[in-house]
Amino acid sequence: MKRMILGVAIAVAVGGCATTTSPTGRTQYVGAVPQAQLNQLGAQAFAQMKAQKPQTSDSRQRAYVQCVVDAVVRELPANWRGGWESAVFADKDANAFALPGGKVGVYTGIFTVARNQDQLAGVIAHEIGHVVSRHHDERITRQAGAAGALQVVSGLLGSRYGQGAAQAAAQGGGILAQTGFLLPGSRAQETEADVVGQQLMAKAGFDPRAAVTLWQNMIAAGGARPPEWVSTHPDPRARIGELQARAQGLIPTYEQARATGRRPNCG
């Protein structure tokens, strides 16, 4: 019954969709669900995941991740800063995500490829970039407009963050959390999150060149089965050149941030 109500709500809300411009100048269609509701659904899905998936007992890992999150969030526009929280899940997959409502999840497996704070910032800033670029809103709006309430259920077939996260969202977060939060982003959205994420990490005082090293580590760790975080992103080899080019252009931003006291010391 809850899913039916949510489906009808989506169909009704489509009429209120709006056109806006993304941080990189791309036209977006958003607004099928109000931001407050997106935040609530993000918090709901995050709470369910924390309740069902074991978290690390290592306080240093928790503090490390929250330190990087805090440093990145300080560079967001004022309306996005809010009270961001993070959780570190005890899982060997190299994976991470961020949700509307200021939620960041990191799997302990990410530390095998993000080997210092700058590389970890590359992961976290990318995921936060999805949130502030309104990609979850955009995906929900696109799905609702294209399929209508009856076909939104097909979104349950895909999950960006693995079956554990998908099941947690399905059980507690409702169908919107599943379709809008957990499906892979489009190529345009992934590129945009790269751009926004690299800008954020440079402004926060993290070396933007570390995003390149991070992806190189991801590829090296892949073997026959790439890390989960890589497997949901388009052709990592192709984007390394783009990351390298942007990193060079962001060195002045990074150096200015360091000169003005933005020197994260997260570990």
UniProtKB/TrEMBL annotation:
<keyword id="KW-0479">Metal-binding</keyword>
<feature type="domain" description="Peptidase M48">
    <location>
        <begin position="60"/>
        <end position="246"/>
    </location>
</feature>
<protein>
    <submittedName>
        <fullName>M48 family metallopeptidase</fullName>
    </submittedName>
</protein>
<dbReference type="Pfam" id="PF01435">
    <property type="entry name" value="Peptidase_M48"/>
</dbReference>
<keyword id="KW-0645">Protease</keyword>
<keyword id="KW-0482">Metalloprotease</keyword>
<keyword id="KW-0862">Zinc</keyword>
<dbReference type="InterPro" id="IPR051156">
    <property type="entry name" value="Mito/Outer_Membr_Metalloprot"/>
</dbReference>
<comment type="similarity">
    <text>Belongs to the peptidase M48 family.</text>
</comment>
<keyword id="KW-0378">Hydrolase</keyword>
<dbReference type="InterPro" id="IPR001915">
    <property type="entry name" value="Peptidase_M48"/>
</dbReference>
